[in-house]
Amino acid sequence: MQIRYLVALSLLPQLVIAGEAPAPSASQCVVQPPVPVPAVQPSTDENNQVIRISSQDSEAQMGKEARFSGDVTVTQGNRLIKADEAVLDQENEQLDANGNLVFQDSAFTVTAESLQARMQNNSATLKGAQYWLHGQQVHGDANELEITPDNNLLLSETNFTTCPPGDSSWLLEAEKIKIDSSDEWGEIWDARLRIAGVPVLYVPYMTVPVSDKRKTGLLFPTFSTSSTNGVEVAVPWYWNIAPEYDMTITPNYMSNRGLFLKNEFRYLAGDAQQGQINLEYLDKDRSISGNPDRYLYHWNHQGAIDKNWRVLADYTDVSDNNYFNDLNSDVAQATDNQLSRVGEIAYFQNNWNAGIRVQDIKVLGETDEPYQVMPQVSFNYFSPSLWQNLDFSFASEVTNFAHKDAGELSLAGQTIPTATRLHVEPSLSYPIYGPAGSFVSELKLYQTNYWQRDFANDSGLSEHVSRTIPQARLYGQINFERQTKLFDENYRQTLEPQIQYLYVGHQDQSDIGLYDTAALQDDFYGLFRDRRYAGLDRIANANQVTLGVTSRLFDDHNEEQLKFSIGQIFYLEDNKVNLLPDLVEETPSFSVLAAEMDAKLYEDFYFSGSVQYDTKEQDNKKSEFTLDYRPGANKLVQLSYRYIPDLLNTNTNDRVDISQAGIRGAWPIRDDLYFVGNWYYDLNESRSIETYTGIQYESCCWAVRLSYHYRIKTNYDDDIATVPDPRDQFESGVYLNFVIKGLGGSGPLGVADMLNEGLFNYRKPLYLRN
To answer: Which of 136, 393, 643, 720 has its CA 20 to 30 A from that of 673?
Structure first.
């Protein structure tokens, strides 16, 4: 069981004295000044020097003093002052005002007991002030509020909050606050945070941003406690090294594990390149036998060198397979099990491009590692409308496949080969498009050469293989539509039949190793692919016809209410190419029947589903369904089911059936209180695999969330412990998140954030074209 209490503070967001305030979100309550003040009219005085004064009564001596009384209004540029009385000292260029005093400019409104304005340097001092920032929740009191000649703001014996007047949920008090309008930073001295009138935090000095500018300093800490990590305290420190460099260093102490150090370095290189480096290190993890060191390093760089050149680099490595399962990394989550290592540079022109790429993917928990691409050089050329609407394209690559265990035996008892592959793929296509349909005829040639190494004599592989395979494809699609009436409603219905003929020549490829090839999924859109396998090591022969049809319903507002698609492949000859040389597959006369449907059933009810059905064996090969009820914002109930038979468990190499049902919901209990929850159940194992329940209260100035999470935990085999280290198969936790609005927080609290908690994130399943 885990308890988390998290409070993060980042004071005065967007407290900009000059400029527009950000628009409040729907969940915010903008606090309005209690006194009605007429809107300030745009000034035609470019230098804002002209002072205009109006009143019911006035008394003046030329060049000396002028007194005004009764509904006094003073304007200068975009500033406005209203008071019962005002005295203008013309000799010293000073204005004193009092009585129902109101000061307003484009950024804030202030009421005060008295005001003293000095026109020669454009400054002012207000006593006994109350202020409100326009368009924001922020308001407060100040014994003295001074506007300096350089438009800085000084507040003495002051406080502020984002709660409505009379609500003391939280209040920040300070002896002094200085807002620098040029540096766009605020300084706060002797700050005290009160919650429900009780002081809970004292900070002698702090600096806060009032814009997007960055400044070196400590960020606010986070606190938590859990059964796995113990008491946890993280204190991040931000270092603004230069305009193009910055770094965040976070010491994170966990009483059960030790000191976990996280470092994030960000940089800009030129006008169009950026990158990030992450280093994470835990010295001697005390929760694992042997106290192993655990670490992560990550580098990402991308951008354009100029208008033609593009670069990409992405590299991540961790100390062990369970790093993301055990530690709260800034780079990836527990559900991520693939680490990408990619480097690429490419050159682009209007009709051709070329590039060189290296790639290595580490799969956490896998004992057989994939091949490394070291390197791949590619060249692609496109010439649309080469002659008489005839399109020409040419793709080519030279790829060297390396492996760190080359020539050694794999777990399957086979020697691991390596290879260099040269592939060229010219194609000609003739598309015909019309308002009611389209027809495309295409010719393609696959020419591939392999030079293979490090294989055993009895592997069946050849040192050199040359493979030439032709392909012909004809694809046509027609659109029909009609007006129809269903349930006393008018609709426009479409009927969109599709047909494809595909021919791919056959060549024995059993003497070629598998370097980047895997089977593709047989969904509806996959029926019209021209390839059965991803990658180039196996190109399956084909002599087949694919038939499919899609029907849609549109209402009177041309909004799609239903889409249904169904299709199947009819094989005219057997497939002679398989992924494994010893695998003998009986090719059926037709593929699975693939169907998909998305529909708005009635008002707020939506259905989405897909099925892949073996019509010969009368067996369900895959299916998933969701039923959504979405009557409004933050209101959702979703029922779901998915079934996948004969799925390979990579941890045990066993075949398992996945049959899971789930329910997910979000619902407001009242305007300031709502509930989110989900529950997923494994029908085969008769056990719950994930449960999430959360309830959140949100007022104008603070929010709190209490949630419970129970889920199955992915644990990989690891060798970092000196003795076998048993790990729990399931983990559970209770979490408490608290946010003070206007003082930042632990991240966004809301329905969308809660729906994405856990292993099964919410996905709006509908693909209706609206």
So the answer is: 136
Pick the closest to residue 715 from 320, 243, 167 (CA basis). Answer: 320
Strands 217-218 and 198-209: unpaired
Peptide bond into 165 cis (omega under 30): no
What pLDDT is attached to residue 24? 34
The residues facing 603 across adjacent strands are none
Per the model's pLDDT, the better-predicted residue between 229 and 268 turns out to be 268
Buried b (16+ CB within 10 A) or exposed e, 336-357: ebebebebbeeeeeeeebebeb
CA dihedral over 168, 170, 175, 176, signed as positive or negative:
negative
Is-cis flag, bond preceding 149, omega within 30? no
Whether the per-residue pLDDT at 496 is higher than 80: the answer is yes
Please report, rounded to a whole number, the percentage of residues in the chain having pLDDT higher than 90: 43
Across 526-634, the runs of DSSP E, i.e. the strands, are: 533-534, 542-554, 560-571, 593-602, 605-614, 619-632
Of 610, 603, 634, 598, the residue nearest 769 (C-alpha): 598
Token pair 């945070």 is found at: 193
Amino acid at 724: P
- 10 touches 220 (CB < 8 A): yes
Per-residue pLDDT, 724: 63
Residue 25 has pLDDT above 50, yes or no: no
Residue recorded with tokens 């005085």: 45
Q: Are strands 79-89 and 123-133 parallel, antiparallel or unpaired?
A: unpaired
Pairing of strands 170-180, 185-195: antiparallel
Q: Pick the residue with more confidence: 307 or 744?
A: 307
Expressed in angstroms, the distance from the first to the final Cα of the chain is 44
Measure the CA–CA gap between 540 and 519, rounded to whole angstroms: 11
Residues sharing a CB contact under 8 Å with residue 204, sequence separation 6 or more, in sequence order? 189, 190, 191
Mean pLDDT across the chain: 83
Tokens 């965040």 found at:
248
Q: Which residues contact 458 (CB under 8 A, 6 or more apart)?
A: none
Tokens of 281: 């290190």
Nearest CA to 159 among 211, 123, 184, 194?
194
Q: Comparing C-alpha atoms, which of 474, 481, 547 is closest to residue 504?
A: 474
Q: What is the DSSP letter of 527?
A: G
Q: Per-residue pLDDT tens for 428-451?
A: 999 999 989 999 999 999 999 999
The span from the CA of 650 to the CA of 643, in Å, is 18
| Mean pLDDT to the nearest integer, 685-695 | 88
Provide the 8-state DSSP code for 459.
Answer: G
730-740 and 2-6 strand pairing: parallel
Instruction: Identify the helix (H) or strand (E) that includes residue 754.
Output: helix 751-755
The pLDDT tens digits of the residues spanning 131-186 come to 887 766 778 899 999 988 877 889 999 988 878 888 878 888 999 988 776 666 77
Quick one: tokens of 116? 């003293």
pLDDT tens column, 311-326: 999 999 999 988 988 8
Q: Please count the residues of the chain.
A: 770
Question: What pTM did the predictor assign?
Answer: 0.76
Positions of E strands within 650-759: 654-670, 673-682, 687-698, 702-712, 730-740
Token pair for residue 273?
């390149």
**What is the per-residue burial (b if ≥16 Cβ within 10 Å, else e) of 235-270?**
ebebeeeeeeebbbebebbbeebbebbbbbbbbeee
Tell me, what DSSP letter sits at residue 525? G
Whether 7 contacts 223, CB under 8 Å: yes
CB 459 within 8 A of CB 415: yes
